[in-house]
Structures
1.
Amino acid sequence: MKHLKPRETHEFLRQHPDAAFVDVRSEIEYFYVGHPIGAEHIAWQEPPDWDIEPEFAQNVKALVAGDRSRPVVLICRSGKRSVDAGKVLEAAGFSDVYNVLHGFEGDLDEHCHRGSSNGWRFDGLPWAQM
């Protein structure tokens, strides 16, 4: 798995229009917190139990029409769940997996707040909120 900072990711996606951009956060996070424009939502976990979605790799495979060599870029809140999801994709035979460092909301600061030092939104990249 390769790792890209949010701005690097934005440029990578611009240069690789065939890449699948997958937001692995829960449906609630995706719609109510916001999401990168162009990202497809395939949850890695959902409340209330936060169990790993057993069909995650299969759902991503369907998104890429079965082409496991196609680039897949994963984003979550801060970059942890997307790493875990990326490992599962690699184990399932995906060969070109990327993780977005710092995720959509970024790392926690000294006051336990996100979005004040890094992340997709902090970098001013395109996003939407429903």
2.
Amino acid sequence: MDYKKLGFKCGIEIHQQLNTNKLFCSCPSSNLRDTKADVKFERRLRAVAGETGKIDIAAQYEMNKSKKFIYEADSKDTCLVEMDEEPPHPINRDAVTIALEVSKLLNAKIVDEIQVMRKTVIDGSNVSGFQRTALVACDGYVETSKGKVRIPTIMIEEEAAQKIEEKKDSIKYRLDRLGIPLIEIGTEPDIKDPEHAKETAEKIGMILRSTGKVKRGLGTIRQDVNVSIKERNRVEIKGFQDIRSMPKVIEIEIQRQKKLSKKEDAHVRKIEPDNKTSYLRPMPGAARLYPETDVIPLKVDIKKIKTSELIEHKIKRYEKLGLTHDLAVLTAKANKADMFEKFVKEFRNIKPSFIASTLTSTLKEISRKYETDVSSLTEKEFQEIFKALDKKKISKDVVTDILMDYAKDKFVSFDKYEAASSEELEKEIKKIVDSNPGLSIGAYMGMVMKRFQGKVDGKAAMEILKKIMR
């Protein structure tokens, strides 16, 4: 399709959970638990007029459904604030600091004072009937392959409760997720085509992950897409979990808009499993906002805000250390990037590429191929292994075995894996060659590795074998 000729307009909104305690209380910000709920209550919600004196059309739409809302929670991650039985505490300073760092990375102008607003939400996902939200910065941008994409607003707000069951007359929510800090980043309609939307989302996601202070995993980041063509009103498509589907969903939506026989009102749509979209609710507007009188405005001081190195810059730096591009990407995006850099400085006798592959691909191989849970491994275990390897107490070939023993809580000592000395290795290789004349170098090498069961460095063994066979 000729998107320019169609009058294609597209912007995205990104919602990313921050890795701190909750935004307006000190509860931990865990996701939905599998534990049995020990808190249960019910509510019915109604819309109120916003600052303009009008009731928001989307809020009225939800209220007309007249549904009862059932709330469950684990008291380990919730308190009276989430239940709307206690006023909000002061805004979480750690979350604000992260939002300010992201704003600087997005070249945005940071506000002088953060003032919290209430945004009416009547679908039950907020017990109080509103979501707390605040402007942090404005007028930013991100560079892409097709030019700058402007970012008019960066907000910090509360995550909603998680829906776990819906019936004809009621909806059940779990409150563990409610109140987790979110940063919301919205772009101008500067996106040129569906693939450009995906690229822009990836670039902003990379910047968020570069801070090392955002949550990772399914459900911790969501993208909404606003899209239209000429003579058609804007449609908001909610809840992309996997941005790989974004271009296809946008393309299908444009095809739908092209086929419209009359002009439809702006509205919100949801994504179906086949990448088509369906009507969800009317488009909300400014009428849903009004001031939050329970939270004191926060003066902003950006002097101490430091920005993290972008992942794309780390990748280039890691390639200079000898990592392949793919390994550099894997390492820079992994949650062990700081550990990698620490070990590279500490263990000079080990190639950075081996340290990187051990912390990334080796762990994946152990998990998938050997079905061993490696989540219990800590920095302490890796440090001990690399220290032994750096001092040539063990060989690289036994590192996988040691990691597996650590993971299974079977590790005793490094003596079990201690590398053979150069003298012992040469003596044994000569004995193997003399006892088996006429074999290929590959066959001898296999016999050597089998004899030492990985307790030798393969490269060193090959050099000795070549010397003996001259």
3.
Amino acid sequence: MLMLGMILRRVCGGLLTLLVVSVVVFVGASILPGDATEAILGQSASPEAVAGLRQALGLDLPAPERYLRWLAGLLTGDPGISLINRMPIGQLIGPRLTNSLFLAALTAAVAVPLALLLGVTSAIWRGTAYDRVTNITAVSLVSVPEFLLATIGVILFAVQLRWASAMATPVVDSLGGALRTLALPVLTLSFGIMAQMVRMTRAALLGVLDSSYIEMARLKGVRPARLVLRHALPNAAGPIANAVALNLSSLLGGVIIVEVIFSYPGLAKLAVDAVETRDMPLVQACAMIFCAAFMILVLAADLCSILSNPRLRVR
């Protein structure tokens, strides 16, 4: 019951945070200069035409009323109609969200196993040249932003060497085509989250390896492989899972940059295009999806910490 109560408190806190985020997103979208009428009618439109279109689109309503209508639509699964395309926002977001999830899944499939392998082996062989090289490389990659990595990758591998394509697409017809079109965005995202994940995994495992019961098992003659796999890793699983979830949540920020640089038809690219045309209902819906995904991953990290605590399981 104690564990269930903690989980329920985390879930309620996440829902309350999303409510606050919805207010921030709506206010932030409302204070942006200009609106969709300028994108539709152009700069030379008469004030009467602009006023009539604003009334037709419902942009002349008071801000609290527009927020409550938008929030009610979100709660019922209807984020509204795009002001520019005049299509349901759900139909616009669906394919783009699938493309973004596909890119994120590929990145996680590449980054998570490699980061765990490097973090665990670095902790096992700490103090060696391998450990020092791994840590220096991780710190270096953490210091480099995603847009710089993406730009260097495009210049080197797409423009100079012509090994990869500067345009990414989720539609591939062969393994070679997938490597050519998706290698650069996946590697750009992977480098960013792997660096943090390697360091956090190494720190979590070192904390367990330095404990007294591990020292006792080592004195009893337990082999190093068994010591790590059977005694250390199970107790470090919670912090490691927490590190994985937190770093995957930071993947969302990199997705926005990568989709814009590589013109990938994902949700982030749709949101950037909507900002340019001041399609505020679409901007708000995309922002809420990103915030909800971030909150879910952070909540998953908290749940991993709670479930991995043996004192809570016993009580």
